[in-house]
Amino acid sequence: MIPLSTRMRPDHLDEFVGQVHFMYEGSLLYNAIKNKTFDSAIFFGPSGTGKTTLARLIARDMDADFYELNASITGIKELKEILDKSKVKFFGLQKERTYLYVDEFHRWNKLQQDSLLKALEEGAVRFIGSTTENPYFAVNNAILSRVRSIYEFKRMERDEIYQLLMRALTDEERGLGKYDLRYDDNALSALADLSGGDARIALDTLGFLADNLKAGGIIDLNIVGEAMQRQTTFYDKGEDKYNLLSALQKSIRGSDPDGSIHYLARLLDGGADIQMIGRRLLVIASEDIGMAYPQAISIVTACVQAAQMVGLPEGRINLSQAVILLASCPKSNSAILAIDKATNDLHKKKIDDVPPHLKDAHYSGAVKRSLGIGYRYPHDFGGYVKQQYLPDNLFKEGIRYYKPTENGKEGAFKRYLESLKEEE
User: Fold this and answer.
1) Full-model pTM
2) Apex 251 CA angle, 245 and 254, nearest 5
3) Among 4-8, 366-370, 377-381, which is the least confidently predicted range?
4) What's the sign of the alpha-carbon dihedral 286, 289, 293, 297?
5) Total structural domains within the chain
6) Alpha-helical runs (H) found in 213-295
7) pLDDT band for position 27 (50/70/90)?
8) How far apart are CA 46 and CA 131, in angstroms?
9) Is residue 75 in some structural domain?
10) Average pLDDT, the chain
11) Nearest to residue 342, comparing CAs of 303, 286, 391, 295?
């Protein structure tokens, strides 16, 4: 049987959900597709975020031949056959381009990837490669230089996945509309959340539930938890995960390791995953501890990565270590205050240009424009020399964004910065 996620792939570009940072009506990518001017591209990001779906929609709107390969099971032979056909169509009477989509493109070695170069240079093929790996590391530079755009696909938001689930439940042709399923809205929200931003997981789990529910059954939190093999405690109205995350951060900020561990335990018991908790802990490490104990961010990062490697339940120990460390650290919010104040000035003040002596002078003609002249290299003066860095108007105002506290390690940074001022 065809999986629900496959059946529910959109037929039209306007049905595409997610990736609103580059795909929306009027965006450059949207217009390029609609105007049939779309060139080659690389899509990278996690599974289930719409890379293959968008590639197929693009090919459909281009009214061109479309070939789809998976790099894990195909090689140069299949690629050569496609490229030969595309050259015939492009250089022959038809003058038509071919679209080639290669899934998991990073699995091809350098020789295989380089097989595309000539076809890309000639323009016979428009290429779309998708990868879960960072293309700047996994794709040859020669390919990257010939591809116009690289689009990063992010994990889908819960509301976006919820929208897809509702579409599947109501669509009578491709989806589950004829099943007349009963469901609890809370359960669908939990399914959207537990899928970890992967629409394929969410839709195929919904299809599994629809195929295996007893007559008269209802999709509720318990059945979703059973299907996902996860606890769903905090998806009940009485235990909102955002309240628990807030309580965790405030307990850490308040230097209460007992309260902090309590809320960590409730999150884990309720089914929160490592990524959800880890993201919040990494924010706390900079927002609430920051310069008072700068090593906190490195230690917490290591703990979160360790938890991801070992998985739950053992990963709870790594997370526990991170939480206790953060709660027991001296606190400083100077980092968030500094960046927020600087950003606020950008939005509310007219800011002068970068001082000329700080501008880049590493190109011909810079000296003629008086750029970089007068810059004093601090290392030539023992590590510090008095010099203006802020734009003129902010410098004249005596603006200070970073105001160090005396807490923890930050006290040493404060005394060092004060000693530099005394030297002036």
Assistant:
1) 0.68
2) 140
3) 366-370
4) negative
5) 4
6) 221-228, 241-253, 257-270, 274-284
7) very high
8) 8
9) yes
10) 88
11) 391
Helix (H) or strand (E) holding 135: helix 135-138
Quick: pLDDT tens for 281-293: 999 999 999 999 9
Predicted confidence (pLDDT) at residue 93 exceeds the cutoff of 70 = no
The predicted pLDDT at position 238 comes to 46
CA angle 159–162–167, rounded 5-degree value = 130
Q: Is 402 helix (H, G, I), strand (E, B) or coil?
A: coil
Please count the other Cβ atoms lying within 10 Å of the Cβ belonging to residue 394. 18
Q: Which of 195, 197, 180, 179 is nearest to 230 (CA)?
A: 195
Distances 222 to 10, 208, 311 between C-alpha atoms, Å: 30, 15, 23
Do 145 and 26 reside in the same domain of the chain?
yes
What six digits make up the tokens of 176? 């589950």
Residues 22 and 114 in one domain: yes
Tokens standing for residue 145? 């230089």
What residue numbers bound the domain in which 72 lies?
18-152
Between the two ends of the chain, the Cα-to-Cα distance in Å is: 77
Q: Token match 């195909």: residue?
A: 74
Average pLDDT of 317-341?
Answer: 96
pLDDT at 335: 96
The region, left, alpha or beta by phi > 0 then psi within -120 to 50, assigned to residue 183 is: beta
Q: Average pLDDT for residues 217-231, to the nearest whole number?
A: 82
CA 234 – CA 238 distance, rounded (Å): 7
Give the closest residue to 17 by CA, choosing from 149, 146, 197, 278. 197
Same domain, 132 and 87: yes
